[in-house]
């Protein structure tokens, strides 16, 4: 069954439903959900990044936002975020666990792929007892100090040093291994986490 998405005009009014393939082929405006996962320790804040599966058609194997996905036609935004967290990371959450941090508009072009997204953004706070069960769309999940991540965003670091949640091994992440769009989200993220 083909994935169906609601499409929107410039005024964010619903104007129809199209398949995901059509949406990306024609660059039609649609909604997605994004979730940043954080963990608060006594001495520091950690942020989680997802490594996309090598089988993905776009940004394969690159590190990205903790969890993201399309909102299906007729689906409520929060329900979509809950579904994506379960499908991708095996996390069972409810609406009260999610903190809405705002909306971001994103457009980008790639070969045979055009994106015009309305991104509804959330933060989910976890703790060390949280168990992730990675789905087939996710290669790995890593965590790293937020202070280090902020330095990378500000151009002060070129390499991130993270820890894999799969085997607790250290992972070096270079600029070219990170989805190019995620830096744009960080102003709202930093504000919500009271980092700036």
TrEMBL record:
<dbReference type="GO" id="GO:0016787">
    <property type="term" value="F:hydrolase activity"/>
</dbReference>
<dbReference type="InterPro" id="IPR000086">
    <property type="entry name" value="NUDIX_hydrolase_dom"/>
</dbReference>
<dbReference type="InterPro" id="IPR015797">
    <property type="entry name" value="NUDIX_hydrolase-like_dom_sf"/>
</dbReference>
<keyword id="KW-0378">Hydrolase</keyword>
<dbReference type="Pfam" id="PF00293">
    <property type="entry name" value="NUDIX"/>
</dbReference>
<protein>
    <submittedName>
        <fullName>NUDIX hydrolase</fullName>
    </submittedName>
</protein>
<feature type="domain" description="Nudix hydrolase">
    <location>
        <begin position="28"/>
        <end position="173"/>
    </location>
</feature>
